[in-house]
Hints:
globular; alpha+beta
Amino acid sequence: VAVGAVVVHQNRVLLVLRGQAPSKDMWAIPGGRVELGETIKSAAEREVLEETGLQVMAGEVVYTFDVIDRDPAGRIRYHYVILDLLARPVDPTQPLRAADDARDVRWFKLDEINQSALPISGPTRQLLNRLMRNGDEPSEQPH
């Protein structure tokens, strides 16, 4: 099981540039594996802190999907069940720093994501468009 955190503030979303597979050299929602005994909210908060230096408060699950990778013979190499949670920064003025497997970290407006050749997966782009359509921030508040 893995988590992602859709961190939103002032109509911007936090993305990391992946430095390792999977998704190397792609901009993505920060996240990673859930550790044994860790809640999904705690995992999302920890992963964002490790990758970006930003403390967040995770909320509800907004998207769920599977990533299944197979070798050339069709055998499964790995299978992730990924839960993306909405999150808000505790202190949005806190400076960002790319760390762990992130090579870069930045805030992006939705139009920057849609009007550029930004390397980002189709499902991530669709999720962000659904959550942030019409320039509105998601109304769901983390608890």
